[in-house]
Amino acid sequence: MMNADLEGYEALIYCLLNKLNNKEIVKQILHIDPKTDFPTAPPHVAAFSIIFNPVFGKAFFGEDLIGTGTCNIKDINHNGNNADVAEVMIPAWQWHFQEMIKLDDPFKYIRKFL
Predict the structure, then answer these.
(1) Could you give the angle at which helices 23-30 and 3-20 cross, rounded to 10 degrees?
(2) What distance lies between CA 30 and its chain's CA centroid?
(3) Separation between Cα atoms, residue 84 and residue 75, nearest integer Å
(4) What pLDDT, in 10s, does the model give residues 58-97?
């Protein structure tokens, strides 16, 4: 990764963490030592490990359920016939992670929310 790219990612991460506006969540994401108030990990922690961190995802995208499609439910009491259709639901942060992982640059996806 080029140095300019890394600086751009670091600036984006800074904006994302500021948007969260929750010091305790930021401390969990960056692994801040509660005694020293400094990160326990090296300062060059990859930006990708932050944006795909579940703590970050839950705080940034939320945990509301999102419908991802439908599936047939077999009714075992009636000879295995399709009885009902159920909507498949997952938390918003997981859905957004799935969308981000499909892209060459997941930061482009995140920029839409700033």
Answers:
(1) 140
(2) 14
(3) 8
(4) 988 999 998 887 776 665 555 555 557 777 889 999 999 9
Residue 2 confidence (pLDDT) above 70: no
User: How far, in Å, CA of 24 to CA of 46, rounded?
Assistant: 20
Q: Which amino acid is at 45?
A: V
CB 97 within 8 A of CB 113: no
- Using DSSP's 3-state secondary structure scheme, residue 57 falls into helix
Q: So what's the pLDDT on residue 22?
A: 72
Looking at every residue in the chain, the average pLDDT score rounds to: 74
CB 26 within 8 A of CB 38: no
Nearest to 15 by CA among 64, 50, 53: 50
CA geometry: angle 107, 112, 114, nearest 5 deg = 90
Is residue 5 classed as helix, strand or coil in its secondary structure?
A: helix
